């Protein structure tokens, strides 16, 4: 079965104050089946709204076209004013690859959208980034130079003939840039000043483009030129970063407004730290920052871990805690509350997934297990017990990392704790996966079996579902088994006050291994082709025997340390 292709679309509309107009545009997006609206970020000062939605390519392109059409009907660019550079009612509409699709394919979809907009809406369209038709049009800033006000003259020049649509001025809708690009983060850093000039000084220090080099005075000195007469530039601190300074009346502060165009080259926290360094040198102070639109989860995890390293604290804490550290360290909640569930793209996508068991509190989970329903049952409980075992061993690693007098060993225990967190997180996911696998078998048994063809289809579905119901508990067995290495290390080398916690973790892991093994065996008995499961059975027997041996050794070691 081919994997589902996903792309993200992040259109920027030149309206950030009239929420009725914004709602009508987003209603058009949500009217397309197969598209999920993730975020609507309206800015009053910029008079601009950044909308984010995802889906498979065809419905995303349909939704983008409908939104561009509605924006052209509702937004009059001849009356638009705002802080952000702009040239159209839909100023820019990038498509971004998210899953199982190449940039080349995304660029092709961008051209399909551009052609539709130009032909049906008669809006001049320029293709940019990976969809650009020439190197001169790759950079969005070059395309947008002069903004809306320059369009009447610009459109008469052959070198600025639109890629799609008429080469004539559309006074109401302006022009639109459509492209394919990597994931871009729009990020603003707040300063304790109202001076745009000072904010620009920081922006020039940070951005890749840097500033024009001058002789003597950095502002009024003579521009240094190369042998061709072109200004020589002093590069900034951060590659793949575009930045300007501006004043936001809504907040009463100046900001460095940045686009991080390649977060692998310059991560969010690196750009933030560069702003802090520049601001400090100039007698300013960074007070916080703000994310515009959505951010990939890994960006905040990387930032949180960066700040934990600076504190020499364990990185092996929960994902939620790492993100909390990132939010506090970056000051993302200075201007408005920052809710990761609404700003992190993976969390918004996961909201549609069915993981009801791990969402329950302890009492509700126990009640669900104790009900008359056959699922969730022993498989889900085994996964959860395994997660508890990994959590206990991880706790000992974190306590050891922060133990007084062991400061030089924090990285050693941090690495152990990170391993434990990874085991715990996967086992928690498997809690629901096991119940899903059981339900898939039940659904297969309910398929019709009247005709010979229906019987064959039903049997094939049962066989496939049963194989999944073997693979899931086997994975539980494997990951629970991985806990023994961590538990043993903590009993041997960890905080001596917590060795019993590591031992209890090992006992939980053994219970999880045995429970999962029983589920593997019972589901193998339901297979028609039991030879398929032979590798599972052989490896499972070995792991169970090793689990018994390791657990016994860990308990004996613990008891020896107690005497």
Could you walk me through the main structural features you see in this protein, from its secondary elements to its overall organization?
- With 563 residues, the chain is of the alpha+beta class.
- It contains 17 helices and 13 strands.
- Strands 1, 2, 3, 4, 5, 6 and 7 form a seven-stranded mixed β-sheet that branches. A four-stranded antiparallel β-sheet has the order 11-12-8-13.
- The model has no long low-confidence stretch (mean pLDDT 94).
Helix content: 40-55%
- CATH architecture tag of the largest domain: Up-down Bundle
- Biggest sheet layout: 7 strands, mixed
Structural class: alpha+beta
Total DSSP E strands: 13
Provide mean pLDDT, rounded: 94
Strand content: 5-15%
**Could you say how many structural domains there are in total?**
3
CATH topology of the largest domain: Four Helix Bundle (Hemerythrin (Met), subunit A)
Number of helices: 17
Q: Give the helices and strands as they follow along the chain.
A: EEHEEHEHEHHEEHEEEEHEHHHHHHHHHH
Low-pLDDT regions: none
CATH superfamily (homologous) name of the largest domain: Formiminotetrahydrofolate cyclodeaminase monomer, up-and-down helical bundle
């Amino acid at each position: 079965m081919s994997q589902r292709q996903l792309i993200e679309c992040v259109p920027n509309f030149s309206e950030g104050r009239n929420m009725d107009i914004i709602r009508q545009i987003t209603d058009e997006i949500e009217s397309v089946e197969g598209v999920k609206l993730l975020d609507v970020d309206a800015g009053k000062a910029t008079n601009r709204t950044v909308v984010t939605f995802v889906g498979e390519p065809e419905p995303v392109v349909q939704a983008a076209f409908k939104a561009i059409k509605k924006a052209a009907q509702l937004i009059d660019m001849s009356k638009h004013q705002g802080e952000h550079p702009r040239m159209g009612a839909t100023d820019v509409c990038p498509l971004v690859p998210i899953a199982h699709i190449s940039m080349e394919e995304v660029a092709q979809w961008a051209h399909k959208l551009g052609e539709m907009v130009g032909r049906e809406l008669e809006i001049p369209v320029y293709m940019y980034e990976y969809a650009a038709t020439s190197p001169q049009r790759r950079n969005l800033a070059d395309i947008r130079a002069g903004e809306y006000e320059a369009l009447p003259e610009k459109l008469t020049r052959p070198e600025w003939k639109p890629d799609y649509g008429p080469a004539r001025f559309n006074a109401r809708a302006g022009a639109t840039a459509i492209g394919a690009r990597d994931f871009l983060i729009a990020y603003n850093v707040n300063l304790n000043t109202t001076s745009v000039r000072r904010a620009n000084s920081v922006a020039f220090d940070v951005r890749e483009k840097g500033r024009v080099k001058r002789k003597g005075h950095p502002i009024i000195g003579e521009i240094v030129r190369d042998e061709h007469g072109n200004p020589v530039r002093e590069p900034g601190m951060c590659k793949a970063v575009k930045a300007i300074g501006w004043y936001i009346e809504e907040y009463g502060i100046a900001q460095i407004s940045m686009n991080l165009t390649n977060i692998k080259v310059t991560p969010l926290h690196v750009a933030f730290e560069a702003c802090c360094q520049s601001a400090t040198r100039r007698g300013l102070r960074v007070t916080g920052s703000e994310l515009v639109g959505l951010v990939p989860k890994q960006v905040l995890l990387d930032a949180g871990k960066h700040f934990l390293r600076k504190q020499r604290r364990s990185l092996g804490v929960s994902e939620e805690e790492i993100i909390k550290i990132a939010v506090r360290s970056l000051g993302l909640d200075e201007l408005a509350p920052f809710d990761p569930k609404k700003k992190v793209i993976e969390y918004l996508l996961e909201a549609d997934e069915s993981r009801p068991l791990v969402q329950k509190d302890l009492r509700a989970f126990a009640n669900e297990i104790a009900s008359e329903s056959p699922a969730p049952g022993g498989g889900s409980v085994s996964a959860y017990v395994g997660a508890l075992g990994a959590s206990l061993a991880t706790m000992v690693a974190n306590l050891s990392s922060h133990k007084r007098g062991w400061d030089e060993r924090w990285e050693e225990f941090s690495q152990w704790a990170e391993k434990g967190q990874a085991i715990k997180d996967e086992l928690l996911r498997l809690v629901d996966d096991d119940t899903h696998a059981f339900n898939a078998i039940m659904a297969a048994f309910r398929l019709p079996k009247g005709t010979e063809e229906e019987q064959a289809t039903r049997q094939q579905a049962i066989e496939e579902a049963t194989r999944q119901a073997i693979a899931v508990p086997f994975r539980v067995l494997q990951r629970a088994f991985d806990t023994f290495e961590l538990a043993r290390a903590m009993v041997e080398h960890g905080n001596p006050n917590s060795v019993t916690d590591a031992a209890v973790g090992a006992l939980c892991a053994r219970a999880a291994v045995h429970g999962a093994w029983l589920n593997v065996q019972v589901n193998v008995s339901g297979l028609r082709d039991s030879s398929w499961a032979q590798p599972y059975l052989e490896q499972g027997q070995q792991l169970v025997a090793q689990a018994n041996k390791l657990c016994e050794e860990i308990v004996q070691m613990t008891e020896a340390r107690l005497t």
